[in-house]
Known about the structure:
Mean pLDDT: 83
Largest sheet: 5 strands, antiparallel
Oligomer: single chain
Strand content: 15-25%
Structural class: alpha+beta
Shape: globular
Strand order of the largest sheet: 1-2-3-5-4
Number of helices: 6
Low-confidence stretches: 190-206
Radius of gyration: 17 Å
Amino acid sequence: xxxxxxxxxxxxxxxxxxxxxxxxxxxxxxxxxxxxxxxxxxxxxxxxxxxxxxxxxxxxxxxxxxxxxxxxxxxxxxxxxxxxxxxxxxxxxxxxxxxxxxxxxxxxxxxxxxxxxxxxxxxxxxxxxxxxxxxxxxxxxxxxxxxxxxxxxxxxxxxxxxxxxxxxxxxxxxxxxxxxxxxxxxxxxxxxxxxxxxxxxxxxxx
Length: 206
């Protein structure tokens, strides 16, 4: 169901078969935007999810598309973000894309938030090379008890088993984008690595 949205003229469906996603025009300045209606998981508090999404967008800054509007609407969170031209990165990630992703995650993790679904589909590389992290629907605080979400091929073992999402789980997902066939090795490294190093100094990974 299309949410009630302010100042938008719908142009086309982008992904009508899953989460509601529409390309539209933002009336205040005529710019293109992406409109989304995300259904909040059963049992989750919509207002908390909304606040975590807002905090994540602030923390990421220029590493995520600009948010123009976001609001709870019944069992959905409606959002309007700037339309950004770009492409999903190739896997394995190139070194410049890896660097850009780690810088973005450092911003997010320093704010105590975890993305929970880092995968190529949720990354956007602009023509100037800047890496954007998109799809902030499932962001939660580090260690928060929440529903199990993520893309199976990039999900940390502890999360798949029902454990709480942590910064290490996001970084495990990054590892699967470097070598999708090395998950057992990456899992061992993820469990053995000190969290402050990974959260605070992403460039040391390089």
